[in-house]
């Protein structure tokens, strides 16, 4: 049924693609140039470009595990197959060395390469289209002054008809709205700056907004949460699952440092995002936080009260640790939690080096157990060469029944939400490798250097 609907969708796209083909044909090629000398770029422009590249996570997607920075080749899984990022170093043959500034700006604004081919929106140009010409010039100066690396990414593995780039003309006609960003005249400068960065370069919605079956973000479920690469991405709108409501201050701290005392550490694909945001100007992080806090809205009195109650419970438990109960209905889950987890998660050692009291955890209130499964099985690897948040991996220690019992216990004890219904399937699929979970280092917990290869094999 689903496959049929997808096929029907693609029939529509084919027709639209054909229409768009007649209307626009291919985009024209922009002539190749001789690679400009690195010294021809203004230093200040390059420095600004470095900050902008960190905001845009160019390093995260354009660096393969163990590969050279920006040389591409990372496989990005999509429901349609795997798309590989390209080499964006200034190598003239395999990178963008022969791209003029105009060709680069067009690729960011319109999702078209120098030769005029449509690019897949796995490159988030549906967001980057909002970036100003001025910022694109700085990004170009930054990329053209990186080390040139000769590297060709592996071919994409997309099934027919998704391998036809011309269909992207149809996709764009349906879902793509070209920028640049238009500020709202009635909002503050900080809010507009925040919205420009959030919706544009930092493409938060690429992970936090669910997608339709043709891979476009659902505009009417803005920031409603999703699942990306087998990590649950929490809602960051009014449906945020955080027990203590977020505000501009806590968001700014979390985005900059990769953790917050009332919310815990950023994990999974969020870890490289916060690692990058740790290196950019404070005012820009503050602006992003102002905009996101506004999207979340003012919490109700009832929510504020629930948050305060959770904080009070956490404080109490850090003073007098929770003991085993005489008549537990889930003795196995409770015994595992008290012996393996409680010692670090009782709140006596503050976050991020100690674990969060789980009464405060968004993971426990999330729509499924996936993120707790991931951190429990694979742990939290330390950042390179520095003390940072660390949790051991329990893969090989707990069997499926024990992990399910533990998760049922955690949900029951630490959340008011109803029991999860698909925990057993998720545990089985994650343990047998059907659900592949990319593990990221916790470099987001400190002011990390602009790290590039944060992916390590589980
Ligand atoms: C979420 C992953 C992701 C992020 C983040 C990302 N890219 Fe990409 N980018 C890709 C993929 C995948 C492609 C290849 C698309 C295709 O083949 O159609 C690509 C292609 C490109 C291209 C076209 C290059 C060519 O040879 O055709 C440019 C230029 C580019 N990216 C620049 C950037 C810049 C600059 C940033 C940061 C501001 C960035 N990308 C961030 C995934 C990403
Ligand atoms: C590559 C995917 C990705 C991108 C891009 C991304 N996020 Fe996230 N985000 C995640 C994931 C996955 C989590 C859950 C991480 C965890 O469990 O710690 C998360 C968690 C969060 C949280 C914590 C929510 C909570 O209740 O604990 C906040 C806040 C957040 N993201 C904000 C942002 C903002 C703002 C941006 C843009 C600057 C952004 N994210 C970009 C994947 C992403
Ligand atoms: C050696 C100490 C240690 C042990 C043992 C440990 N953890 Fe952790 N855990 C941490 C640290 C540190 C973090 C990162 C800070 C944070 O977010 O809580 C963390 C994070 C987490 C998170 C994410 C919380 C959030 O929303 O931010 C969960 C869930 C979790 N641990 C569950 C467990 C479970 C279940 C066990 C037992 C099987 C366990 N931990 C054992 C140290 C530990």
Any chance you could write out the topology, listing elements then pairs?
Layout (H helix, E strand, L loop, with lengths): L1 H23 L18 H13 L2 H4 L13 E4 L2 E4 L16 H10 L14 H4 L4 H12 L12 E2 L8 H9 L13 H11 L5 H4 L17 E3 L2 E3 L14 H10 L1 E2 L3 E2 L4 H8 L4 H15 L4 H19 L11 H15 L16 H4 L4 H9 L21 H15 L8 H9 L7 E2 L14 E2 L2
Antiparallel strand pairs: 1-2, 2-3, 4-5, 6-7, 8-9
Query: Strand-residue fraction?
Result: 5-15%
Separate helix tally? 18
**Strand order in the sheet with the most strands:** 1-2-3
Major β-sheet profile: 3 strands, antiparallel
**How many structural domains are formed by the residues?**
2
Flag low-confidence runs. 1-5, 443-458
Report the span from N to C terminus: 34 Å
Mean pLDDT value: 90
The molecules bound to the chains, other than polymers, are:
heme C
């Amino acid at each position: 049924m689903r496959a049929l609907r997808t096929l029907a969708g693609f029939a529509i796209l084919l027709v639209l693609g054909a229409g768009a083909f007649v209307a626009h044909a291919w985009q024209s090629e922009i002539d190749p140039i001789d690679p400009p000398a690195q010294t021809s770029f203004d230093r200040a422009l390059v420095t600004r470009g470095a900050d902008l590249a960190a905001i845009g996570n160019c390093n995260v997607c354009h660096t393969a595990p163990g590969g050279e920075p920006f040389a591409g080749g990372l496989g990005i899984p999509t429901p349609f197959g795997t798309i590989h990022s390209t080499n964006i170093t200034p190598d003239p043959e395999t990178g963008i060395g022969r791209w003029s500034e105009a060709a680069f700006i067009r690729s960011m604004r319109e999702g078209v390469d120098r030769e005029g081919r449509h690019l897949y929106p796995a490159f988030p140009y549906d967001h980057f289209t909002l970036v100003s010409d001025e910022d694109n010039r700085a990004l170009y100066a930054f990329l053209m002054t990186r080390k040139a690396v000769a590297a060709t990414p592996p071919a994409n593995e997309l099934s027919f008809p998704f391998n036809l780039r011309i269909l992207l003309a149809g996709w764009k006609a349906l879902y793509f709205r070209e920028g640049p960003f238009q500020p709202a005249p009635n909002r503050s400068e900080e809010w507009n700056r925040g919205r420009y960065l959030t919706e544009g370069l930092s493409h938060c919605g690429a992970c936090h907004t669910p997608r339709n079956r043709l891979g476009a973000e659902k505009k009417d479920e803005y920031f409603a949460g999703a699942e990306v690469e087998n990590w649950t991405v929490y809602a960051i709108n009014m449906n945020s699952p955080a027990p203590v409501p977020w505000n501009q201050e806590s968001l700014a701290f979390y985005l900059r440092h990769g953790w917050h005392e009332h919310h815990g550490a950023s994990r999974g694909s969020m870890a490289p995002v916060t690692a990058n945001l740790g290196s950019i100007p404070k005012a820009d992080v503050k602006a992003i936080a102002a905009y996101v806090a506004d999207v979340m809205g003012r919490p109700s009195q009832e929510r504020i009260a629930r948050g305060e109650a959770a904080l009070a419970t956490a404080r109490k438990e850090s003073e007098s640790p929770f003991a085993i109960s005489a008549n537990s209905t889930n003795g196995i889950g409770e015994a595992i939690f008290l012996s393996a987890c409680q010692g670090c998660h009782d709140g006596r050692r503050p976050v991020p080096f100690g674990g969060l009291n789980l009464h405060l955890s968004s993971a426990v209130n999330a729509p499924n157990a996936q993120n707790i499964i991931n951190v429990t099985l694979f742990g939290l690897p330390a950042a390179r060469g520095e003390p940072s948040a660390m949790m051991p991996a329990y893969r090989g220690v707990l069997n499926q029944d024990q992990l399910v019992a533990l998760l049922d216990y955690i949900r029951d004890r630490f959340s008011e939400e109803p029991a999860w219904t698909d925990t057993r399937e998720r545990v089985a699929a994650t343990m047998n490798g059907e659900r592949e979970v990319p593990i990221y280092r916790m470099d987001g917990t400190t002011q990390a250097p602009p790290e590039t290869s944060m992916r390590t094999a589980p």
